[in-house]
Amino acid sequence: MLEDPTTMEVPDDDVLYHVGRIGSHFVVMVVCPRMGIEPAATALANMRRSFPNIKHVLVVGIAGGMPCYGPDLQEQIVLGDVVVGVPQHGRGGVTHYEFGAWEGQKELTVKEHTLHPSAALLTAVNNLRSVHMQVAGSKIPQYLYELRRGLNERSRQAYEDPGAEYDYLFEDNYPHPDRGRFCQGLCDATRAKLRKGRGKRAERKSDQPHIHYGNVGSANAVVRSSANRNELHARHNIICLEMEAAGVMSDYQGLVIRGVCDYADSHKNKKWQGYAAATAAAYAKELLLLLPAGGGSSTESSLPDERNGTGGDGWYVGRDQFHNSGAGFMNFNMGGGVQTNNNTAGNQYNTPFYGHPSALPQWPKY
């Protein structure tokens, strides 16, 4: 999704950063070395030390979704939809549901400690919601089309919508029988419902995912249980589950954007990971293009400067990785073994860049 992408190494920092632009924003991205809250917090701390002028933080990637939520469970999430963590029902948008105190009969009382997104990010979210109410859907289909364009057939498939015929929701009381095998040819399809026959999925066109706004659950444990998923929703109004946001939001007012790739039950698979990651990234791009570039003029960058006098905006991506492939596109790694590819425009720099990016022709001079 980046324009003019390149890579950058920073002295005394072992991470290779990926930098570029989205509209008037200068963007820097990083990958966590492992899944979990602590690695995410460490990655952001290192990034902020190396890029001290970052203004905004986004945590973008994949998550497990709550199939139905809201009053009488009328709202439905299907695979490929996007969840944005915003304050609701007195919560800040992210709940660290493992953080709290054990009280009474082995009951964990969760203590809220995460921050809510910044006023600038929440304003951008609300403005984008207003735009989506006035026009036919978001620009996600456009950005996904641009992403796929120019990719070879095999690479393009990782970003394609697998289709509603592969969106199975199994009964809560029907667990996956063998973790070493996929559902196809193993699980009883009569114990599942295709989402295309439920609610709004049947009305949707390909590449027009719905965007849901609510509370994101975050912890160090993977949820592979429909019973646990349902309990977390009942207790904390959680509509999706992931493993990094609490580490970021404990100290920084960021915004969490997640594409739903499974239903947080025992029937997890990787078929939807690429598409879900792409829809989340496309929403993030649409949001940034609506967010004013703060901290000075449009020629100011969030990238480190030896004078430490520049300002601008940066983008932090949780466990997800962008790196320059040297083939005219960007590879996006969800951390789950699936590669998806971002088409880009502009010059490509295929070797690590040492020094200040103002030396590159497409970056502003100071």
UniProtKB/TrEMBL annotation:
Residues 16-280 form the Nucleoside phosphorylase domain. SUPFAM superfamilies: Purine and uridine phosphorylases. GO terms for molecular function: catalytic activity. Coiled coil: none annotated. GO terms for biological process: nucleoside metabolic process. This is Nucleoside phosphorylase domain-containing protein. It comes from Neurospora tetraspora.
